[in-house]
Amino acid sequence: MNNENYLDLNVADGSNMAAYVAKPENLSTDTPAIIVLQEAFGVNHHIRNVADRFAREGYLVIAPELFHRTAPKGFEGSYTDFPAVMPHMQALTIEGLTADLQAAYQWIMQQPVNQQAVFSIGYCLGGRVSFLANAVLPVKAAVSYYGGGLEKLTEQATQLHGKHLFIWGGLDQHIKPENIATIIKAVEDAGKDYVNTTFSYADHGFNCDERASYNEAASKEAWTLTLAFLKNS
């Protein structure tokens, strides 16, 4: 762990949360910022790489360790041992995640960035958390890649601040079509703007080049779509 890229944030509930930070070359009051939200496997090499990629695109990035209440600092789970990360996932609460997101956002507000151009993006578990971020933070827009459990957040749909991009894998056996339909209907009923995209040939986790389900074509296409969505929001 390169400590120069990490910081510790005090969360409102009294806990302490580590976060990975990636900065663009030229940080200014025109710089947009983005909160990158982890998969179930922690702020691992892949998530740090995603943060670095956004930084190269000109964003100030913070990736908070959402398991900080139950896992050691720097925790990284194994892609082949999902049961090992389940206890950390199950310990997450809406209240705790809201406090974590607010701590990350408050840090961004203290930086020399464009405070009107803050975004969130999350993958898998983080896809669900990114939707919550859109509801509890004044973000300009947010993105959810294959967010499992989003159907449990329908009550938050009316609170969305910015438009939301949903990205799914058509071969994903972890997320049921009816669950996708539930969250999309909630957003529609709330009168919120959204984009809903399915890559029919991609599986769950297709964006992660360190997982067996990685799909290079879908990952590249989703990346291009994501950058355009954020830029035009």
Automatic annotation (TrEMBL):
Pfam families: DLH (PF01738). Keywords: Hydrolase. GO terms for molecular function: hydrolase activity. Residues 17-232 form the Dienelactone hydrolase domain. InterPro entries: AB_hydrolase_fold, Dienelactn_hydro, Dienelactone_hydrolase-like. It comes from the Bacteria. SUPFAM superfamilies: alpha/beta-Hydrolases. The keyword Ribonucleoprotein does not apply. This is Dienelactone hydrolase family protein. It comes from Mucilaginibacter robiniae. The lineage of its organism: Bacteria, Pseudomonadati, Bacteroidota, Sphingobacteriia, Sphingobacteriales.
